[in-house]
Amino acid sequence: MLPAGPQRLITRPRISDGMAQEEVEVSPTIRGDKVVRLSVCGVEWPLRAEIPLSEFASVVESIRLLARYVDFPSMVRPRGEGGRISTPWSEEELEDFLAERTEGQRIFLRLLAERGRVAREEVLKALREGLGRPDFGGRDLAGLVAGISTRVGNLGKEPLFKVERRRVGGRLMGFYQVNARYRELLLKLLSGAS
Q1: 185 phi and psi, to 5 degrees?
Q2: For the chain, what is the mean pLDDT?
Q3: Domain that holds residue 136
Q4: Which of 40, 61, 99, 146 lies 20 to 30 Å from 152, alpha-carbon distance?
Q5: What letter would DSSP give residue 50?
Q6: H-helix or E-strand containing 66?
Q7: How high is the pLDDT of residue 15?
Q8: What dihedral angle (degrees, nearest 10) is formed by the CA atoms of 140, 130, 158, 76?
Q9: 152 and 58 within one domain
Q10: Are residues 103 and 175 in the same domain?
Q11: Per-residue pLDDT tens for 20-48?
Q12: What is the 3-state secondary structure of 96-123?
């Protein structure tokens, strides 16, 4: 039996039909006798129901079988508009992109670069203070985030952050996490900017 909490399993390459299979990382989060969250190759899979541990080995075998036919690693590479593989940012491209952003978008990206991962409530507080707008709310934040994401997608570039939703103390909370690849560059380009 697996211990409670987050786990990490790697299904090793196997040779079948003369073809070697790539490793597939399966990361379950276990509470009691059920898997409550499941990530495959770093991508969280939305579960319809919690998976009883007694059935989890069968699920992992099914993922291995699926990996024979589905290229999981290419699914986790960032994709831009139209499903094409996103390209990395150069310093000049990112600098130009940031120059086009609104003050709120720059505050948002700087906060993520400084802290790495930030809860939605903290982001709202920082934006209210930074913009001098006590009325800045969830809809405003959604528009701000969508504006960045849409432009990044249209440019075919790698995302600068990701959005997560997690249960914390029985409450569903939103978090924003900077793309670690661009954290230092964002800090450099946004230092002192508002």
Answers
A1: -65, -40
A2: 82
A3: 84-190
A4: 40
A5: P
A6: helix 53-67
A7: 34
A8: -70
A9: no
A10: yes
A11: 445 677 888 888 888 888 887 767 788 88
A12: HHHHCCCHHHHHHHHHHHHHCEEEHHHH
E strand or H helix that includes residue 160 = none
Q: Please give the Cα distance from 71 to 22 (Å, whole number).
A: 9
Residue of 37, 26, 40, 29 whose CA lies nearest to 3: 29
Size of the chain in residues: 194
Q: What is the pTM of this model?
A: 0.57
Q: Do 72 and 90 lie in a common domain?
A: no
Angle between helices 91-99 and 138-155 (to 10 degrees): 140
Q: Could you tell me the two tokens for 9?
A: 């399993």
> 3-state DSSP call for residue 92?
helix
Residue 152 is part of a domain; what is its CATH number?
A: 3.90.1150.220
Q: How many beta carbons lie within 10 A of that of residue 63, not counting itself?
A: 20
Q: Which residue has the tokens 């969830």?
A: 138
Q: Write the CA distances from 49 to 35, 37, 45, integer angstroms.
A: 9, 10, 11
Query: 140-169: per-residue pLDDT in tens?
Result: 999 999 999 999 988 889 999 999 888 778
Claim to verify: residue 93 and residue 69 sit in the same structural domain: no
Quote the number of domains for the chain. Answer: 2
Nearest to 141 by CA among 123, 157, 161: 123
Domain C-terminal end among 58, 76, 94: 76
Which H/E stretch holds residue 150? helix 138-155
> How many CA atoms lie within 13 Å of 146's alpha carbon, on the beta-carbon side?
6
